[in-house]
């Protein structure tokens, strides 16, 4: 596989955009309680190297045994670590969603894994639900997982990054099926604290040795004091209540954003999440438009690197951001194309 370019939304070489639609961070945040916990974290001391209290809190939060919690420096770090671990176990094939976060492929490429077209033929399987960039349900689950067939099953990782921000639909897997896969949890998006890098995975119920090996492959203190404070705050009832109260607001902002774009001729794809993909009218030069919007303090996520050329991914944002986007889009349409191209070049 060719090495994919590492492209992300959010802050770039031009700094942060005033109105950032390019990331999937919760636009209602940051969560006040989680932010306060991060701000008072004691950065003058090492965290407990075993993360005893944090592991117990996360395990209790999910109703699992503490050994099943594998801490990670970030979701991306865990993606690379479990890919390396899979290779050590003899894995040589991987299945990736057609549209997906680029680090799945990047990690697979780094370890020379061969990409499979059929999910049931792969030894390592990546899933994400709601998916990115589409924000939709995942459909291509291995038959062995869905039907409980005997025999070896692939290492399957369910990326739950966007599950807390789900606005519709539900996961197809039942509780027993979820217990058979790795679940990767990165709360920083839901808490709107994406600058705090910390995550964890929940190991399959029958994989204590695998969890032990994944823990052993981590460096000492993979999660710093600030990340540990965020993860601990994630388990608190008031924080979860705050998140639940965000969902209706995000749903309203999303509905307004969809109408805003559709009124201007954009094709907006269905999603179950607080973000979605949209395609501008055929007359629009998308790269020129994105550059024009950036000069107006607005950033959208070009979905090409996510497997969706010609589309952008947008997250639900507050009314002031949407008003700025609407005004900029109308200005761009009103401008002669040569003016837009000059602004792009600038």
What does this structure look like?
The protein is of the alpha/beta class. It folds into 2 domains: 19-24 and 239-345, Aspartate Aminotransferase, domain 1 (Alpha-Beta Complex), CATH 3.90.1150; 33-235, Type I PLP-dependent aspartate aminotransferase-like (Major domain) (Aspartate Aminotransferase, domain 2). The chain has 12 helices and 13 strands. It has helices at 32-39, 52-62, 75-88, 102-110, 143-147, 175-178, 208-216, 225-234, 237-262, 286-295, 319-334, 337-345, and strands at 19-20, 69-72, 93-95, 114-115, 124-128, 155-159, 182-185, 199-202, 267-268, 275-279, 298-299, 301-302, 312-315. The strands form 3 sheets. The protein has a 7-stranded mixed sheet, with helices on both faces. Helix 1 runs antiparallel to helix 8 and helix 3 runs parallel beside helix 4 (102-110). The longest helix is centred in the C-terminal third of the chain and has 26 residues, at 237-262. The protein is globular and about 65 Å long.
Number of strands: 13
What is the name of the CATH class of the largest domain?
A: Alpha Beta
Compute the separation of the termini in Å. 35 Å
CATH architectural grouping of the largest domain: 3-Layer(aba) Sandwich
Strand order of the largest sheet: 2-8-7-6-5-3-4
The tally of helices reads 12
Radius of gyration: 21 Å
Name the CATH homologous superfamily of the largest domain.
Answer: Type I PLP-dependent aspartate aminotransferase-like (Major domain)
Sheet-strand content, in percent, reads 5-15%
Specify the biggest β-sheet. Answer: 7 strands, mixed
Helix fraction by DSSP (H/I, runs of at least 4): 25-40%
The CATH topology assignment of the largest domain is: Aspartate Aminotransferase, domain 2
Structural class, by secondary structure, is alpha/beta
Query: What shape does the CA trace take?
Result: globular
Low-confidence stretches: none
Q: Mean pLDDT, rounded to whole units?
A: 91
């Amino acid at each position: 596989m060719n090495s994919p370019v590492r492209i992300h939304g959010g802050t770039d070489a031009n700094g942060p955009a005033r109105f950032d639609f390019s990331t999937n961070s919760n636009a209602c945040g940051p969560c006040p309680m989680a932010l306060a916990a991060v701000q008072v974290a004691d950065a003058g001391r090492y965290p407990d190297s075993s993360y005893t209290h944090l592991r117990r809190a996360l395990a209790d939060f999910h109703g699992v045994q503490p050994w099943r919690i594998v801490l990670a420096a970030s979701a991306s770090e865990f993606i690379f670590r479990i890919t390396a671990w899979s290779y050590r176990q003899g894995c040589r094939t991987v299945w990736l969603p057609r549209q997906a976060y680029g680090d799945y492929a990047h990690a697979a490429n780094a370890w020379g894994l061969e990409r499979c077209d059929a999910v049931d033929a792969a030894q390592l399987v990546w899933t994400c639900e709601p998916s990115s960039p589409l924000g939709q349900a995942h459909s291509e689950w291995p038959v062995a997982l869905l039907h409980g067939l005997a025999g070896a099953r692939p290492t399957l990782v369910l990326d739950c990054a966007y599950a807390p921000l789900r606005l519709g639909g539900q996961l197809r897997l039942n509780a027993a099926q979820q217990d058979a896969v790795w679940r990767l949890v990165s709360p920083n998006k839901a808490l709107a604290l994406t600058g705090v890098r910390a995550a964890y995975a929940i190991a399959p119920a029958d994989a204590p040795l695998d969890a032990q090996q994944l823990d052993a492959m981590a460096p000492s203190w993979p999660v710093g004091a600030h990340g540990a404070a965020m993860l601990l705050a994630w388990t608190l009832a008031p924080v979860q209540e705050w998140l639940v109260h965000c969902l209706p607001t995000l749903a309203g902002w999303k509905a307004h954003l969809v109408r805003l774009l559709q009124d201007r001729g954009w094709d907006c794809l269905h999603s179950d999440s607080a973000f979605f993909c949209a395609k501008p009218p055929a007359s629009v030069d998308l790269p020129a438009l994105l550059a024009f919007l950036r000069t107006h303090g607005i950033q959208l996520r070009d979905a090409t690197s996510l497997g969706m050329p010609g589309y952008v991914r947008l997250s639900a944002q507050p009314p002031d951001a949407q008003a700025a986007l609407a005004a900029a889009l109308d200005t761009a349409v009103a401008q002669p194309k040569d003016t837009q191209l000059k602004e792009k070049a600038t």
